[in-house]
Design a protein that fits this description.
The complex is a heterodimer.
Chain A (H helix, E strand, L loop, with lengths): L3 H16 L2 E7 L4 H16 L1 E7 L2 H10 L8 E5 H9 L19 H4 L7 E14 L20 E4 L5 H12 L8 H9 L4 E5 L2 H9 L5 E5 L4 H4 L5 E3 L7 E9 L6 H12 L1 H9 L14 H4 L6 H6 L5 H20 L1
Parallel strand pairs in A: 1-2, 1-3, 5-6
Antiparallel strand pairs in A: 3-9, 4-7, 4-8, 4-9
Helix pairs in contact in A: 4-14, 7-14
Chain B lengths: L4 H29 L2 E2 L2 E2 L2 H8 L1 H33 L3 H12 L6 H12 L4 H8 L13 H25 L5 H7 L4 H12 L1 H17 L2 H7 L6 H10 L4 H27 L1
Antiparallel strand pairs in B: 1-2
Helix pairs in contact in B: 1-13, 3-7, 3-10, 5-11, 7-10, 7-11, 8-9, 10-13, 12-13
Classes of the chains: A alpha/beta, B mainly alpha.
Chain lengths: 338, 271
Amino acid sequence: MKYLLPVCAGLMLASTSTFAKDKLTISVYSFAQDAYKEALYDPFEEICDCDLVIETGNSVERMAKIEANAAKPVIDMAVISSHDALALARKGLLQTLDTSKLSSFNDLYEAAKNPLGDNTAVGYTFYASSIVYRSDLVDIKSWADLLKPEVAGRVSLPNITGTQGPLTLHMLNQALGHKGIDFTKTIDAVAENADNIVTFYSRSSELAQLMQQEEVIAAPLGRFAWSRFSGSDLPFKWAEPAEGQTGGMNVMLMTKGNGNEELAYKFMDYWLSTEVQTRIAMAKIDSPANMKVEVPADVADSLTYGAELINSLNMISPADIIDNRDAWVEQWNNKVIK
Amino acid sequence: MFQNRTEGLALVLPAAVFIAVLFLFPVGILLSEGFKVGGEWSLAGYADFVSKPLNRTVFFRTLKLGFLVAFVSAIIGYATAFCIVNLEPAQRGRVFGLIILPLMISPVARTYAWIVILGRTGIVNKAIVGMGLSDSPIRFLFTETAVFIGLLQLFMPLMIVSLISAMENLPKDAIPAARVLGASWLQVFTKVILPLTREGLVLGGTLVFTGALTAYITPAILGGSKVLMLETLLYQRVNVSNDYVSAGIIATILIVMCFGANVVLRRVAKA
């Protein structure tokens, strides 16, 4: 009896050490987690015989956590927008990636290979942004049509604080004949029309509801949310404006000094592989950054798919967004929100 | 009741420690953020906050809507409470239940209902156009009117319940006596009902005003970013800008406004 306790303790320790798995902590957007679990997390855990710890939240929360734990990272790998990744890189929080450890690296679109210019991130998905509109009530041929009298009181714009806000200003700026990324005159134009804009939406789900109940008939939208509209009974159409479509890219990155680099590389490599990118695209979760992915036309319709479209996207550089965002928000708050 | 004070204090201690450690201490840390700039104690954050036109606009809008919601709640609340206390006991219970019922439904559900009701194709606009009051639907959503209606519907039950409670304690002969002596209904209200129910009004006013000031869901859904109020601005500062200094300042302003409202209402009631 007197040996029972030490023996049990020994067995427990042995079993713990035998079955203890490696652990990888990742920080991801909170959307479509069930679909990601099926397409990415569960298959990877089987292959690596490891445990994934998934942390979700909005970008600000997740970035704050990475920054607050810079000395001893609690996040190994994260996915985030390219401009948010640049903000982290500028604070020295990211690790330079050894792209030779990513077997699918050469299969990525050129724009996804080194989006920040310092090899601290690789793109894993693109999204186009254009205008969704009610084709029976209005015709949209230019980004400037969002401010025309025909849609006054029936149009919604994304809030400047979200990802779609700066993209919309970027395209409106071009449509109104202004060059570069000085949005002052465009923000003035939006401010003049502020009373004609139903709301400045923050989430695509919010916009979907407003368009379903005919409160709004035209609004800029990310392609990732197009499936909310394409299946509707109402005649929604995706605009192809004269100035083109804008868009953006989300990237994957690794925190500096996380100590779990090998497993993080394995996971990133798996996520970027043609097999997984195809699976994710077929589930209409994210558009592929891997050029070898092939999907049928009906699936492609819901995605930002194909070299021609991706190369045509009129994007703002992450540096321009980070360098100017505070000034845009300040102008927006003073002139548009008031 | 207790043999000595120590016993009473010992019973209170766990709750006091719980509140102090898990509520007051974190709130203190949050509020202190507003008094720091670059790690140093300073009021510069407040000066900067007040200097921005948007913040001033949002502050006065919040104050205005809080006051309007409390004021209109009081007017409707007095009429409703007066009717309810004069009902037969069985009917009073049923009507009281109807007043309480909305408080048991999630504010999110109640607020979302207004999106449908106040929308272009909602019942309000259909009635307005149908009656020929307007040629085309009127835009209610994402206006101060929508936020006001949502907040009023959300908090008016609290005012009615407070006033019912106060009116039940009103001497039954007070109103007939005033009428027999020749007082008009306005005089009955101002000289008899109001003075005798002012504690209920203070309680209801404080609950409605502070509720309207601090509600997040209703202004966020019905006002959006076009009708920012202090609480939606606070959310924006934390979740979009990661700006805890502004968040601490806004939280401090909201707390001061809530306590201030209670003090002012008590003084008005005493006067």
